[in-house]
Design goal:
alpha+beta, 2 helices, globular, about 70 residues
């Protein structure tokens, strides 16, 4: 099921303001595309989105919290 939230501009400030440190799924896109270019899951949305910001340079993101994700031991 796609994430139904609107896309947010991918900036450090926006990620820090909106993304929780909880687990969830996320989508990234770039340069006006309406379809996701990358879909992922993580146990810490804020940390992972900040990593993508530095490594992949997407320009928009959206996410959905999911309580079932746990950190691997």
């Amino acid at each position: 099921m796609p994430i139904s939230k609107k896309w947010s501009k991918m900036t450090r400030a926006k990620i820090e303001q909106t993304a929780p440190t909880a687990g969830g799924v996320y989508e990234l896109t770039s340069f006006g595309k309406s379809q996701p270019l990358y879909i992922g899951q993580t146990d810490d949305l804020r940390r992972r989105l900040l990593e993508h910001l530095e490594n992949r340079n997407p320009n928009r993101f959206r996410f959905k919290k999911a309580g079932f994700l746990t950190r691997p031991k």
